[in-house]
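We treat protein structure as text, and this decision shapes the records that our systems exchange. The tokens are whole numbers drawn from a learned vocabulary of local backbone shapes. One such record is reproduced below, unchanged from the form in which we store it:
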Amino acid sequence: MSRIGKAPVVIPSGVDVAIKGSTVEVKGPKGSMERTFSDRIAIVVEEGEVRVARSTDEPRDRAQHGLVRALIANMVAGVSEGYVKNLSLEGVGYRAAMKGSSLELQVGFSHPVLMDPPDGITIEVPEPTKINISGIDKELVGQVAADIRSVRPPEPYKGKGIRYVGEYVRRKAGKAGVAR
């Protein structure tokens, strides 16, 4: 039995979970999310908890058991608290700014890079070298943060680039050089 799958998801106050067939809809103070799962996994709401059970012990059902429970837990946490990813820009002249609803990055290219956030994602730039990405969908927040980071990932020689706050970048020595 999956240790993650058999743990119930506690529904906090202010959050409503509705199940229609194999579709789970979660509504909360931050918004609402809906997701359809495999009908081979049974999802039940009882006594303020969501419980997930599988019908058989086949490998694909076992694989889905913990996944479905984790996705439902992420949905409940997202509509009640939300998710935030923080990025920082390291490098001389590297900066970010909001141009309308688009994010403008100046990270060492000959041109600024413009990125439009998808629906449900909020991007803030409190300082020119800090970017905050927030939303209710954990997967989407992480993907947008990864897309922004991929514009100029941190490099190991000078450490320049866009990195997650708290990310450790292993530094390399570089060339030894010739003594003159």
Observations:
- DSSP finds three helices and 13 strands in the chain.
- The domain at 3-80 is CATH 3.90.930.12 (Outer Surface Protein A; domain 3).
- The CA atoms of residues 39 and 87 lie 38 Å apart.
